[in-house]
Amino acid sequence: MKSLFDPVSIGSIALKNRVIRSATHERAAGEDGRFAGFLAPIYTALAQGGVGAIVSGMMGVDANSRILPSMADAGTDAAVPDLRRIADIVHSFDCKFLVQLAHCGRRA
Questions:
Q1: pLDDT in tens, 61-89
Q2: pLDDT band (50, 70, 90) for residue 7
Q3: Are strands 13-15 and 8-10 parallel, antiparallel or unpaired?
Q4: Which of 32, 21, 90, 96 is nearest to 60 (CA)?
Q5: Nearest to residue 54, comparing CAs of 70, 71, 37, 41?
Q6: 92/50 Cα distance (integer angstroms)
Q7: Pairwise CA distance, residues 90 & 45, whole Å
Q8: What gap in Å lies between CA 55 and CA 16, rounded to an integer?
Q9: Which of 22, 35, 56, 63 could hold 82 in an S-S bridge, CB 3.0 to 4.6 Å?
Q10: How many other C-beta atoms can be found within 10 angstroms of the C-beta atom of residue 74?
Q11: How far, in Å, CA of 71 to CA of 56, rounded?
Q12: What's the rounded Cα separation, in Å, for the pair 55 and 47?
């Protein structure tokens, strides 16, 4: 019988265990869509704590797809350094970082 802490693969993604932090809406961005400073420490603590993967909170695919100013914008070149920094931190703990992309439709 497999345990919670046995490695698992989801498609081509190999995880060190079956613990996945589900997506939430962290309200972690400034009005420009850039990540607020408190997001990296949250993901660092989760990865350091041993989760196999972290699914980010909703991130817009462009500036017009965010429903709130506090929703991160992952659809611009300006977002790449923030995403890379978080991915590098999470990966250093053998944890995967999955980004939940969203477009909030006509309400955005």
A1: 887 888 888 888 888 888 889 899 999 99
A2: very high
A3: antiparallel
A4: 32
A5: 41
A6: 11
A7: 9
A8: 15
A9: 35
A10: 24
A11: 11
A12: 11
In single-letter form, the type of residue at position 90 comes to: V
Nearest-angstrom CA–CA distance, 75 and 63: 7
- Which three-class secondary structure string do you get for the chain? CCCCCCCEEECCEEECCCCEECCCCCCCECCCCCECCCHHHHHHHHHHCCCCEEEEEEEECCHHHCCCCCCEECCCHHHHHHHHHHHHHHHCCCCEEEEEEECCHHHC
One-letter amino acid at 105 equals: G
- Measured between alpha carbons, how far is 43 from 56 in angstroms, rounded to an integer? 9
Six token digits for residue 52? 């196999």
Question: In this structure, what token pair is assigned to residue 7?
Answer: 């490695």
Q: How many CB atoms lie within 10 A of CB 25?
A: 16
- Phi and psi at 19, nearest 5°, equal -90, 115
Does pLDDT of 52 surpass 90?
yes
